[in-house]
Amino acid sequence: MLKYFFALLLFGAAVAATAQEHEVDPMLIRLKARIVSLGDSMAVPYANIVNNRTHSGTSSNAGGFFSIEMLNVDSLVVSAMGFKKQVVHIPRNYSEENILTIFMQPVVFAIREVEVKGDKQRVNMDGIPVGKQVDIDPELRGDAFNEKPPVLAALFNPISYWQYYLSKKEKQKRRVREAIELEKNWEMHSQNYNLPVVMMLTGTNEEQAEKFMIWFNSQNVLPYTATEYDVRASVRKYFEIYKRQGLLKE
């Protein structure tokens, strides 16, 4: 009988020690976090975050970042359009120096096949004039219209050949063409290199990303013709240099 008593006593002590080990003292913290999609790891902008205890809340910015003052034992309800609502508990080892990543599950709806039927009225084309071919300006044509004349053209068609190289009008057309191509390249480049992309690649907030982009642009290492892969590789590489130089400020 005494043996069972000591066994029961040891079991109770073990349960009490386990409960004490998992007990967390409530402390006021400022949570810094970022919400990303579990499907593609992209930021979830403008998500709603509500504290279950106080019913106060905030929302994430365009890069998915947010911060909120709360107790370390509080739970947050996170919701966003197109994602499943979820309850988030703060890890016991969370430090305010780190940014907590919160993953949200996208909602996928299965849509049945829809067949659309209708009667199409026949359009009367009588009396409508037929369009005529017009001469398009060289700056709006494709590359085939802007190729340099071959050297043989100097022998068989010297007027056209030398007009291409000496005519002011032809030179002006080529400059306009180059300006249009340059603008198109910069437009494509801006889709791969912008503030949200830099925030996602570096894990910084909006202010830190803006300061890094100013420094990064001054290095002049990213041409406007850079591909998406070139942008990601360069940003990650020079962000490490940026941090080693002590330029990243909290």
Could you characterize the architecture of this molecule?
The chain is of the alpha+beta class and 250 residues long. Among the domains are: 28-104, Carboxypeptidase-like, regulatory domain (Immunoglobulin-like, Sandwich), CATH 2.60.40.1120; 138-178, no CATH class; 193-244. The protein has 7 helices and 7 strands, in the order αβββββββαααααα. A 4-stranded antiparallel β-sheet has the order 3-2-5-6, with no helix packed on it. A 3-stranded mixed β-sheet has the order 4-1-7, with no helix packed on it. The longest helix has 25 residues, at 168-192.
Please bin the fraction of helical residues: 25-40%
What is the name of the CATH architecture of the domain at 28-104?
Answer: Sandwich
Total number of beta strands: 7
- CATH-defined fold name of the domain at 28-104: Immunoglobulin-like
Number of helices, counting only DSSP H or I runs of 4 residues or more: 7
Which class of secondary structure composition applies to the elements? alpha+beta
Largest sheet: 4 strands, antiparallel
CATH class of the domain at 28-104: Mainly Beta
DSSP strand content = 15-25%
List keywords for this structure.
Immunoglobulin-like, single chain, 15% strand, three-stranded mixed sheet, 250 residues
